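Hi U.,

Before I forget, here's the chain from the pilot set. I'm dumping it here mostly so it's searchable later in email.
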Amino acid sequence: MEFNFKSNSPYSYMRYGNYEAKYKGKEQYLVPNIEGLLNIRDLYDMFSKMDSILVDLLNMGRMCSEANDERTKFASAYFFVKQYGLLGFMVDIPINTDFMLMNEVTLKEDNFISNNCIMKTKDYFKLFFPFATTDEMSYTVTDGKVVIKSTFYLQEMLQQASLNNQLIYSNFYCEKVDWIVEYAKKMYSIFKKIYEKQNNDVQEFNIENTVNKYYFSGVPYTINMYSQTPEISWQPNSLKQAIDLSFGFMICSEKNPLKICKHCGKVFYAKNPKAEYCSPQCRNQANVYKSREKNK
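Structure:
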C-alpha cells in the first residue's frame, strides 16, 4: 500500500525569518526574532519538504547523541528551526485537545515537557510564553470559547486563525532547545535500531522496548476530489505531528528511502534504493580505505 504525501492538498506551516536564543534561568529557548524581520514570515507546505525535514531531524538526533554538549545542541536545533519553524509541542503534547478550556491539562507519557503528566493549564501556558508579559500574551475563557489577548499587532493578525495556530504561530511562542534535541534523539534512536535490525547489523533482542514507545495521536484529515480520484488531505496540528505521521509511514514502507551512510554515518534520503553512501565523496573515501586494507 502506498501513501501519497505530495498531494494536491498542501498543508501550510509558518516559520519566521529568523530565531534567537533567550535564557530563563539556565534554560535556553528558541524564540522568533522579529527585530528588523517583521514582514519576513513564510508559509510552506510541510509534506512537500518532509524528506529533508526527516533527514535533518534524524541527523540532529545523531549529532546530539554522539556529542551531547551545549554548543552542538544549540547549533543543530537552531539550524533545524530556522529551516522549518518550531515544532509546536504545545498543541501536540496534551491528550485533551481542548485543554485551553480546562483548568488542567493532561500530557502524554514520555513527553519532553514535564515529568508531571497533569499540570495546571495556566502553568502549562507559561511554559511556552515565558518572556511575554500579560499584556503581550494572555487568554480568557468566556462562554466556552478561548480568546487570546494581546496588544501586539502581529498577534492581532492571527485572530482569524485556529486557536492552535494563534498559539504556536505567535511571535511570543518559544520552545526549549532541550525539548527539540530530546525529541530528535528519540526519533534517531528508533530509526537506528530499526535500520540496523533490518540490515542485520546488530542482534538486539529488546528492540521492541524502544520501538513500541513510538506513539502519536491520530491526525485529522479530509477527503478531497480534485479529479476523478479522491485523495487524503492531512490536517496536522503542528510540525511535530506531521513529522510523526510521515516517519511512521516511511519506516514501515517496503521501500523506505531513509538510509545511514556506511562511511560517515549520516542519515540520507536515497533516491537509488541500492545507494550505500550519502555522497560521491563518502563513496570514494570508502573505496580508498578498502583498497588500503587489501594492500596491507
